[in-house]
Design brief:
The protein is an alpha+beta fold. Among the domains are: 7-113, no CATH class; 115-199, no CATH class. It has 16 helices and four strands. It has helices at 7-13, 32-39, 85-97, 116-129, 138-145, 159-167, 174-184, 187-197, 204-218, 225-234, 241-252, 260-269, 277-288, 293-305, 311-318, 325-337, and strands at residues 17-22, 28-30, 52-61, 64-76. A hairpin with a 5-residue loop joins strand 1 and strand 2. The chain starts with 6 loop residues before the first helix and ends with a helix.
């Protein structure tokens, strides 16, 4: 190999193809030009989580169809959200000195093991990307969502099959199967479905079906905040952002709006909705009233403010003169933590 300038250059010189996915906020493919600009230090990472870039790599050689390598890597980011050349070069040096397949072992300081549900979604997306068939659980999951065995017969539906259906919403009329199923399935399979849908750009029909569940749950005297947080995750990447905004505002004005799970689902998965001035104002008030206290308030705000494009929304909301005394105190304590 000639002189190597970064991860992309290494993989190109090795004659391989690759795709990179964000594994932190939402499992979605990062365009090659965006990743290249990030690893060269030209731009901040677009989807930071806990001031790190969480990445999943699929590496393959078109001449060797069975040769597939997967890496899960997390890189710390500097104060501006960028990758330092020192960390990038250290990782590339490890690539040069070691076999590629060993990059996810315990001795690799950048490796991590995703949660099982993220792993299933990653494999579903990778299979589709490479033009490979879905898993053997796919057809069983499709039958379940079509209601064939009965919605109470969910115990033997494999999570991988659900992930495959969600990764292929644009195939086999899968998107059309879900709205009715969502209205009728028990909470347990809905939880699995929500964990997969959060990584997909769901359509209006699916969004409305989940919104109906939210409204039914909010109408109860004993609203289940964890179920509400799952609903938020399920439609967090909806193609119809106005529907999501409506639901988030209803949730944030309800008693469960200050629940930490609900707030974490909004900040972690639906952060783009917080660019709406009314939504972020409601969010900050709920966050200030969360039982987790000041530490949680600070962590959430710092995490959000590190996302490119979120700084202006947060700064404007913080400067809102109509904020409550409780929120004013929380903001004051936040600023003290920076001094």
């Amino acid at each position: 190999m000639s002189e190597i300038n970064g991860i992309t250059d290494f993989l190109d010189q090795a004659g391989t193809q690759f795709s990179v996915f964000d594994m932190g906020r939402r499992l979605e493919e990062i365009p090659r030009d965006v990743f290249l600009a990030f690893e060269q230090g030209d731009i901040a990472y677009p989807l930071p989580l806990q001031q790190q870039a969480w990445l999943g790599f699929v590496v393959w050689n078109e001449k060797e169809n069975d040769e597939l390598v997967i890496w899960f890597l997390r890189f710390p980011l500097d104060a501006t959200g960028k990758l330092t050349s020192g960390i990038r070069d250290d990782f590339v040096l490890r690539l040069i000195n070691r076999d590629q397949s060993e990059q996810d072992d315990e001795s690799n300081p950048y490796g991590f093991k995703p949660k099982q549900e993220h792993m299933a979604c990653f494999h579903a997306k990778a299979a589709k990307l490479l033009g490979k068939p879905a898993s053997s659980y796919y057809e069983h999951a499709r039958d379940y969502f079509a209601g064939k065995p009965g919605y109470d017969q969910w115990a033997f539906v494999g999570f991988q099959g659900i992930a495959d259906v969600c990764a292929r919403l644009d195939q086999d009329d899968n998107a059309a199967l879900l709205p009715d199923a969502i209205q009728q399935m028990p909470p347990q399979p809905f939880e699995a479905l929500a964990q997969c849908l959060e990584h997909e750009a769901v359509d209006e029909q699916i969004t409305r079906a989940v919104a109906s569940l939210i409204e039914q749950e909010l109408a109860k005297d004993d609203t289940n905040a964890n179920f509400i947080s799952l609903c938020i995750r399920a439609i967090s990447n909806t193609q119809h952002s106005e529907l999501l905004t409506q639901q988030l505002q209803k949730i944030l004005q309800s008693p469960c709006g200050s629940n930490p799970e609900v707030l974490a689902s909004i900040s972690g998965r639906s952060w783009l909705a917080l660019q709406n001035p009314q939504t972020i104002a409601l969010f900050l008030e709920a966050l200030a009233n969360c039982s987790e206290g000041q530490t949680f308030f600070n962590l959430v705000i710092v995490d959000l403010i590190n996302i490119p494009g979120m700084q202006d929304s947060i700064h404007q909301a913080i400067r809102n003169t109509e904020r409550s005394e409780k929120l004013s105190q929380a903001i004051g304590e936040l600023f003290k933590s920076f001094t």
